[in-house]
Each structure stands twice: as structure tokens, then as C-alpha cells.
Amino acid sequence: MKIKICGITDLDTAIAAVEYGADALGFVFAESKRRITIDRAKEIIKVLPKNFLKIGVFVNEQKETIERILEETEINAIQLHGDESPDDCAGFLTPVIKAISIGSAKDILKADEYECEYLLLDSPKGKYRGGNGTSFDWGVAAGQKVKRKKVILAGGLTPGNVIEAIQIVQPYMVDVSSGVELDGKKDKEKIKRFIDEVKGRKRNGNIQIAR
């Protein structure tokens, strides 16, 4: 099971997350309390493992701006978390993750409109697009096999509920942000607890995920 820690803003947290076993880090370049500057992202990314998954999160951003940030920061995957159309998601040389807000099972059907490799299932938007700490009804995603896409589950995940969410949805990856924060900032202990839960380090054996 892959794990993404999203909303990274400082080097110490990034290094800790990698050491604990995270598989991807997310850097938010859209309006958010976790928004990061290009220069700060560059400082963090340059010390991360070369082949590590470093995801830039964008909301309704111009393609030219995204490509410029990719070039400057060495981000190696794009998460489009706004109202982007299938055409908006096409034409990138970098892998694209399209986020879709899930209110009902019908929303998941939108996935087939997109040619991107990954689909991120998130709760309906709040003040910001993502990272609001609320979950959706995982049952509507149970058993949904999105053609040719790797599913990433996000929205209100915590160390306390992530196992239940995985067992219901059986995603390729889980994505957490506010669920590993304390007083609005990333908490290393919560990050470690989350990763340990998902990786099965405190239980007998790992979660059995159908493929």
C-alpha cells in the first residue's frame, strides 16, 4: 500500500516522512494554508531521493505555469485538484493525478473521461480544494474498478480510520494531510503513526488488498 503525505512545507517534516516510509510527498501550489513557494519547494526537493514521487498540487492553473514550476522544482508528478477538463489534463509529459470530489457513486463515473494514469477520490470541496479534514462515504467507492487508473484515496483520513478506509475502498494509495497535523501543522509523531498503521508494523501481518 502506497502512502502520500500532502501539504509538506518544511524540510524536517519531509525528511522524517521519507524515513518513516512514505512513498510520495505533496507540495501545494494553490490557495491553501499549506501553500508553498517555488523556492521553498526547490530547497526541500533537492535533498529528497531522485526517484521519490514528488507531487505538485494545482487548482485550475495555467498549463504554462505548471510546466514552469515543474522545470524549476523537479516535481515529477502533477495533481490537478480543480475543475480541470479532460483536455486540461492531457498533453503533459509528467504523470497526472486528477482529483474528483465524491458525493455519490455517479461522480466516480467521471473517471473514464480522463486519460490520466491516476484518479484521486476526495471529499466534496470546502474552504479549499482538499485538505479540509472531511471524508466522504467510502461505501460509494467500494468495488468500483476504475478502468486503467490507479486510485488514490483522500479526504479525512487519520491514523484511526485509515485501515477501515483501505479495507472498504482498496485503493492503490492513501493520501493524508490534515489527519497528521496538530494545531494546523504537520506532526511527525502522527505521520509515523499513520504510516505504521498502513504498513502494518503494529499488527500481525499486512493488510490483504485485492488486485
UniProtKB/TrEMBL annotation:
Q: What is its EC number?
A: 5.3.1.24
All copies of domain N-(5'phosphoribosyl) anthranilate isomerase (PRAI), residue ranges: 3-196
Read off the lineage from the record. Bacteria, Bacillati, Bacillota, Bacilli, Bacillales
Listed A to Z, the keywords are:
Amino-acid biosynthesis, Aromatic amino acid biosynthesis, Isomerase, Tryptophan biosynthesis
Q: Which InterPro entries match?
A: Aldolase_TIM, PRAI_dom, RibuloseP-bd_barrel, TrpF_fam
Q: What class of enzyme is it?
A: isomerase
**A Pfam family matched in the record:** PRAI
Q: In which pathway does it act?
A: Amino-acid biosynthesis; L-tryptophan biosynthesis; L-tryptophan from chorismate: step 3/5
- Give the species: Cytobacillus solani
Q: Which residues form a coiled coil?
A: none
Q: What SUPFAM superfamilies does this protein's entry cite?
A: Ribulose-phoshate binding barrel
UniProt keyword Isomerase present: yes
Q: What's a Gene Ontology MF term here?
A: phosphoribosylanthranilate isomerase activity
Swiss-Prot/TrEMBL catalytic activity: N-(5-phospho-beta-D-ribosyl)anthranilate = 1-(2-carboxyphenylamino)-1-deoxy-D-ribulose 5-phosphate
Q: What is this protein called?
A: N-(5'-phosphoribosyl)anthranilate isomerase
